[in-house]
Amino acid sequence: MRYFDTIAEMGHEQVVFCHDKASGYRGIIAIHDTTLGPALGGCRFWNYATDEAAATDALRLSRGMTYKNAVAGLNLGGGKSVIIGDNTTSNREMLFRAHGRFVDSLGGRYVTAEDVGTTVEDMDFVHMETKFVTGIGSKSGDPSSVTARGVFRAIQASAFERWGSDSLEGRTVAIQGLGHVGHHLANELHKAGATLIVTDIDAGRIQRVVEATGAKAVALADIYSVKADIFTPCALGGIINDETIPQLQVEIVAGAANNQLLESRHGDALQARGILYAPDYVANAGGVINVYSELTGWSRDRSLRKADEIYATVLSVFKLAKDTNIPTYMAADRVAEQRISAVRGMIKTWPQYPNREG
What we know:
The chain folds into two domains: 3-65 and 76-127, Rossmann fold; 144-339, NAD(P)-binding Rossmann-like Domain (Rossmann fold). Helix content is 44%, strand content 15%. The protein has 13 helices and twelve strands. The strands form two sheets. Strands 1, 2, 3, 4, 5 and 6 form a six-stranded mixed β-sheet that branches. β11, α8 (265-272) and β12 form a beta-alpha-beta unit. α2 packs across α13. It is globular and about 60 Å long.
């Protein structure tokens, strides 16, 4: 990878490669854009095949956070961090304390949080070394339920756009991934009267959801081709691609996973097939809303109300896409870029220079 060419093309401000010999920590912190505020984004712990794969993930995810925070109306920029390694390890304290020290070295330009492969307890270890962390146990904690609420509302908005009613009674939803968010979302969809088809790499997760909701379980590879109304990706990204799109037998794609489109052109391919796509970073913004509440002191009820606003945001994206005859993923980008541009263009009223102590 030609790193400087890549970060220039993607618009990143800063990428930091970090190593701590004592703990074995190897991490990458990517700061995409801080126009709206400090870069906030979770820490992903994953056993990447190569260092380049880890860097690519950090770059894509951090850019996605810029757009997610902007569309959600939050005063935050976009960032992300990844830790390379086995996320099932029990030796976590020193690993995450090392991460905390590197986050702290950035002086508040980046605020970390929980993500795939990390937990609230991990964030508590990070908090031992820095104040620039959210989602710790003593404050907002696990954001999964708020994320799931937002995705549920995005699904309802998508249903309204496609069928003229946001009722999910009798609709079939295929869920890929039953981690914290997927589990909460399955429960909400079940309560709304939806029939569920589910899959996950963890048989225990599948069993819990099947027992709670009466869902039908299918093999990992079969989730793309099942006949359903809605496909809901709640695992890793890049799963809407050349191989999977032809298999889809749904009318809507709306889920919690980040970077669902492997490439932008796959958003065009969904549109060409007549499949309505709720852009991922619009639908799954509930998680960052939850951690933002920790920074602002919002109550949990206010966080849930803010997550409910995702319904209206998704509909506004669909309207812009229809009015301008562009794919929905592109319309979401425009909404985000308009807000960033507006803030960037505001007149700066600096104190008279020099304004220094001493």
